[in-house]
Design brief:
17% of the residues lie in helices and 32% in strands. The chain has 292 residues and is an alpha+beta fold. It has two domains: 4-91, Rieske [2Fe-2S] iron-sulphur domain (Rieske Iron-sulfur Protein), CATH 2.102.10; 103-289, Naphthalene 1,2-dioxygenase Alpha Subunit, Chain A, domain 1 (Alpha-Beta Complex), CATH 3.90.380.10. It has helices at 125-132, 138-141, 176-179, 238-259, 275-281, 284-289; strands spanning 4-8, 17-21, 27-32, 35-39, 56-58, 78-84, 87-91, 111-121, 151-158, 162-169, 190-195, 199-204, 208-216, 222-231. It has six helices and 14 strands. The protein has a seven-stranded antiparallel sheet with strand order 1-7-6-4-3-2-5, with no helix packed on it. The protein has a seven-stranded antiparallel sheet with strand order 8-14-13-12-11-10-9.
Length: 292
Amino acid sequence: MNWHLVANVCELSEPDSFIRAPLFGGLMVSNFDGELIAWDGACPHRGAAIHHGHVAGCSKPVCQYHGRTVRPSQIRRRYNVTVDDGWVWVSMSNGEFIPQLAAEFVDMPALSLWHRRDYVYPCHWTVAIENALEAEHVPFVHEHSLATLGLVSVGIDCWDDGSIERFISSKGGRLKKLADLFPERKSFDYAHQHLIPFACLSSTKGLTYSLQTYYPRKDGQTDFTHRLYATRSSADVSWYFDSVAQINDKVFEEDAAVCASVPAYDGGELSPVERRIAHFRKNPWYVFASTK
């Protein structure tokens, strides 16, 4: 069974902090006095949703129906949770966790959550994932946003549990001076990894990290969440983090709009540069989804 990447541990560092994800019919990961617990987020008495209407926060897990605080011993349904290189993974099964991250995402610096945005993509989740797995659409869909970075693919690795594509930027020099302010910067330009089935992780020079999750909805659309994480710098570069958040928001809005025009399971011919999509379509998750 798959382990699913859902967050960075920085979001759950404080006691009573929590995040919610639309997995397993309802998933919450909570910090109970320093222990991370993945559970169904339901009151043990009547099943009322804890932190109803909130996707993340920091407050006691109190049932809004009866005003009772939930204790770990009362939780009716737990899931497995582990932290690997600062990333939080959950699973329904008891299977062993096997590290899946590419070299660009291990030995991580400490991160802080800078920006989060939640969308509903008006398309099937496989369409949203496939859009994230190829760059051929970038010059057309993102002419005035992502395309301005001049990214050029320099290699793709396809693995059983994920695939990674690495890029260089034809305009990478403009970040060099800024990168000198980050003591834990990485040597790569851009990297983008897909963690089958629902998550993509990317980074710009190790200065910022982006986690994108794509969860199926019962109405055939996609719950999409983007988290932007910042690394430590030797000067105030909040303007830079804000600008990255703004361009990311624009890119994902453009993606949502174009994905609305793409049907699921179309079966059309893939272009030679869409190797990662071909790899994804061989996965049992895609095969299962395409029969529904």
